[in-house]
Amino acid sequence: MFFKNKSRSLTPEMRVSFFYFIQAMSVGVVNAFAGIWLNSIGITPGQTGIIFAAPVALILIVGAYVGRLADRATDWRTVIVRGAIISALLPVLLVAAQGF
Predict the structure, then answer these.
(1) Is 3 left (phi over 0), alpha (psi -120 to 50) or beta?
(2) How many alpha carbons fall within 13 Å on the CB side of residue 42?
(3) Average pLDDT rounded to a whole number, residues 62-86
(4) What's the rounded Cα separation, in Å, for the pair 99 and 39?
(5) Is the confidence at residue 8, as pLDDT, over 80?
(6) How many other C-beta atoms lie within 10 A of the C-beta of residue 56?
(7) Tens digits of per-residue pLDDT, 29-70?
(8) What is the pLDDT of residue 4?
(9) Is the pLDDT higher at 93 or at 3?
């Protein structure tokens, strides 16, 4: 894992804390700078509002489905890891954005 000495390996609590820290940190960075970046590429404030609201709407719609999928899965960890990877990779597509 991260450390060779088993007594110093990350506990499950530490791993979950690290996971949520990374998620919260990325949201904080986006909230602070995405509006400025979107404005610099010509996105209006109204369009910026739609861009920020769309993920929330998607979470509301997809969340129930993913929850049901996780409940049926024998290994919840796999669902969580795959979901985290997808949620980390999708914003990379914003680099190709040229307008609204």
Answers:
(1) beta
(2) 4
(3) 82
(4) 10
(5) no
(6) 9
(7) 888 888 898 899 888 999 999 988 988 898 898 888 878 877
(8) 55
(9) 93
Joined together, the tokens standing for residue 78 give: 């796999």
Domain regions of the chain by residue span: 10-96
Q: Is the dihedral of CA 11, 14, 19, 20 positive or negative?
A: positive
DSSP for the chain? ---SSGGGSPPHHHHHHHHHHHHHHHHHHHHHHHHHHHHHTT--HHHHHHHHHHHHHHHHHHHHHHHHHHHH-S-HHHHHHHHHHHHHHGGGGGGG----
Q: Which two tokens stand for residue 85?
A: 């990877």
User: Helices 45-72 & 12-40, crossing angle to 10 degrees?
Assistant: 150
